[in-house]
Design brief:
Number of strands: 26
Number of domains: 4
CATH topology of the largest domain: Endonuclease, Chain A
Largest sheet: 10 strands, mixed
Oligomer: single chain
Number of helices: 20
Length: 689
């Protein structure tokens, strides 16, 4: 067995998704939230196959031509993935059975077509005829010469039609379950004190004799299947084709991407399964994943709350105290730096800032980057209104944000129709930095302020993603934000602007060298017997050169503490080091999305927030912004919040070399759930005006 220097990225990601599954298994978590975590796990796994497994399969096809930095062959990694996924699927099924038992205690039942009362049958027939029938057209797949393209993310019922006396040959059929047109969960008439829910696909199953009444069959079965396709968008190199045209073409091709996984009800008859595998062009070497009778569990993130007598209520976000009674958000920012911590602080303060800027007669310019936006974005609403009020508005919108490409194309059109100057990106690099600069003129003086954020400008995800947003008028930071926008607006002289930033560390031209220099200073101090420490909070750590440098630092005696939510390719258990590396992952009610870096720096600590993870793509192939925190009060605030997280002994798991997700044991110490502790800290924090 090969001894690996790092943990395989894809296996580490599966370990992260296992932590999500642990939340679903945790009986102390409210039942509604446990169901939601099953939905998150399922959605995560779908994306993993659409992107990562699809990439590995491409590598297999390329053979020696594939440029890889893998310590195992892609075939071997795919094999390990399949083994791990089958185990997780088994765990998932066991957790779901347990949740069903808990729901039964609450008098909540997931009913299928075999357990219906006469009243419920009558209701279903009526519902089917009025709502469902017009949305389904069965595909008689045996008589179709070219097998239909099955949509990614969609559910299908694979049906067998037979005659009990075998007087006519049986047939196979497919029915697309119309979950985009109709609710997946249908609440049925129930006894008092009970709640009965039936899934849309089970209603269709019940009505199969009605659907296929044209044929002379009297025996019907149906089993759920789901296909997962390669989601990579191939952008051709035709210089005469615009980026927009390339993306539009790529989106069309994505719908026909190569199948990378077939998930199916394990009770499906073998002849039907074998027929589908053959017609889909799959083989037993592909990821064929048997499961229960329910798939596309991502829909369970929206399981109906109305059926629960007791619903778990999140604590409400609150306005930052320094903005609570502020006459003007912009004036408060001009007077001092303010750090918003989502979702504890309300995202409404960002919307208020943009709305205020839209109507302020002194404001003449707004520049902002957008990566992923909410469906009905209040950010876009404020910006289009700013244009109507005569402001010059520039929006940098990243069209290649994966799975948001189509939505971002639509936002581009809406913004341009409103008169916004829209910039769509840099060749071969995604713009991932989250920045804003606002300019106003008072007399002869131009006043500038804005923000740097670790998360997207999305009011929906800001309710559940843990992020930091620095509101500032600091001249050094604002000057660098302006340089970054100059870089994005002036393609012929781009590199000059980005590499000339003095305060913000930018990717791709400076971040790697800057991080290495910061680590090397800690190494030097440790070797000189001085205090040396590095604290990191990241979504992902997979960049091999930086991991190698961190290992060097640990061996030199640098104290390293890390909170890594997702992928962690770094081996954290190293022999013969002075300070054991403390590495944890926290998965709880909110998604830990923020990035923070702290270097001891001979007592003159350097504290940064960043849009970038320590992944090669973020450091070398994206426009990112890593911003120093210059206000001492905010630095202390961030450090205290990190200390709360490092003391978490309820939702924190140890990131050891096996990545087997062992919870930190509270033993006899006080129990600390960091997200609750962080809320309480920020809610009770007093600020001097």
């Amino acid at each position: 067995m090969i001894k690996r220097k790092t943990i395989v990225r894809d296996l580490s990601w599966l370990s992260f998704n296992e932590r999500v599954l642990q939340e679903a298994a945790d009986e102390t978590v409210p039942i509604k939230e446990r169901i939601r975590f099953l939905g998150i796990f399922s959605n995560n796994l779908d994306e993993f196959f659409r992107v990562r497994v699809a990439t590995l399969k491409r590598m297999v096809q390329l053979g020696d031509k594939a440029k890889m930095h893998l310590e195992a062959t892609p075939e071997k990694i795919i094999e390990e993935i399949q083994e791990k996924v089958l185990k997780l699927q088994s765990d998932f099924d066991a957790i779901w059975k347990n949740i069903l038992r808990e729901l039964k205690k609450e008098k909540i039942f997931i009913t299928n077509e075999k357990k219906l009362t006469a009243k419920q049958k009558q209701f279903i027939f009526q519902y089917f005829n009025e709502e469902i029938r017009s949305n389904i057209v069965p595909l008689m797949i045996e008589s179709i010469q070219e097998f239909p393209v099955l949509n990614d993310k969609s559910l299908y019922l694979a049906c067998t039609l037979a005659k009990k006396d075998n007087s006519i040959p049986g047939k196979f059929a497919l029915i697309s379950v119309p979950t985009r047109q109709l609710q997946r969960f249908v609440i049925l008439p129930s006894k008092e004190g009970e709640q009965n829910i039936m899934l849309l696909e089970d209603i269709i199953k019940f009505c199969l004799p009605n659907i296929f009444s044209y044929f002379n069959y009297d025996e019907f079965t149906a089993h759920i299947i789901k296909i997962t396709r390669d989601a990579e968008i191939d952008l051709d190199n035709d210089v005469s084709t615009s980026l927009i045209q390339k993306i539009e073409k790529g989106l069309k091709n994505r719908k026909k991407g190569k199948p990378v996984r077939l998930v199916f009800d394990k009770e499906i008859p073998s002849p039907l399964l074998n027929y589908l595998v053959k017609r889909l062009g799959l083989s037993k070497k592909d990821n064929l994943t048997p499961g229960g009778s329910i798939h596309n569990f991502k829909d369970f993130m929206n399981f109906p709350e109305s059926v629960f007598r007791r619903t778990s209520k999140r604590k409400k976000s609150f306005t930052h105290p320094l903005l609570q009674n502020a006459h003007s958000v912009s004036q408060a920012i001009i007077e001092r730096d303010i750090m918003l911590h989502f979702p504890y602080h309300s995202f409404s303060s960002i919307i208020d800032l943009l709305r205020e800027s839209a109507i302020d007669p002194d404001v003449f310019s707004i520049k902002i980057t957008c990566y992923r936006l909410a469906n009905r974005s209040k950010v876009i609403n404020a910006l289009t209104n700013a244009v109507r009020n005569g402001k010059k508005v520039t929006v940098v919108i990243e069209l290649r944000a994966r799975f948001d490409e189509e939505a971002n194309l639509e936002w581009k059109k809406e913004l341009e129709d409103a008169g916004v100057n829209v910039l769509i990106g840099v060749p071969n690099m995604k713009i991932h930095a989250k920045l804003c600069i606002i300019k106003k003129k008072k007399g002869n003086k131009v006043i500038q302020y804005g923000f740097v954020s670790t998360g997207n400008l999305n009011e929906k995800t800001a309710l559940v993603y843990s992020d930091h947003c620095l509101l500032t008028s600091n001249k050094l930071i604002i000057a660098d934000i302006e340089r970054i926008f100059n870089y994005l607006e002036n393609p012929r002289i781009r590199k000059h602007f980005l590499s000339s930033c003095n305060t913000i560390i930018t990717s791709p031209y400076r971040m790697r060298n800057a991080c290495i220099a910061l680590i090397e200073k800690e190494i030097k101090n440790a070797r000189d017997k001085k205090k040396a420490s590095i604290t990191l909070k990241l979504n992902s750590l997979s960049d091999e050169p930086l991991i190698k440098k961190l290992h060097e630092a640990a061996k030199a005696g640098v104290e390293i503490k890390m909170i890594i939510r997702g992928i962690c390719c770094m081996l954290t258990e190293i022999k013969k080091i002075k300070h054991p590396i403390k590495a944890i992952s926290i998965v709880d009610e909110y998604l830990e999305h923020a990035r923070i870096m702290i270097f001891h720096n001979s007592g003159k600590e350097k504290v940064f927030i960043s849009s970038a993870d320590w992944m090669t793509r973020n450091i070398d192939h994206r426009i990112e912004a890593t911003c120093p925190i210059l206000d001492d009060n905010i630095r202390q605030e961030l450090k205290y919040m990190l200390e709360i997280q490092f003391h978490d002994n309820i939702k924190a798991r140890i990131l050891n070399n096996e990545q087997n997700n062992i919870y930190i044991n509270p033993r006899n110490t006080k129990k600390v759930r960091s997200q609750v502790g962080t809320y309480n800290y920020l809610f009770s924090k007093k600020y001097t005006l």
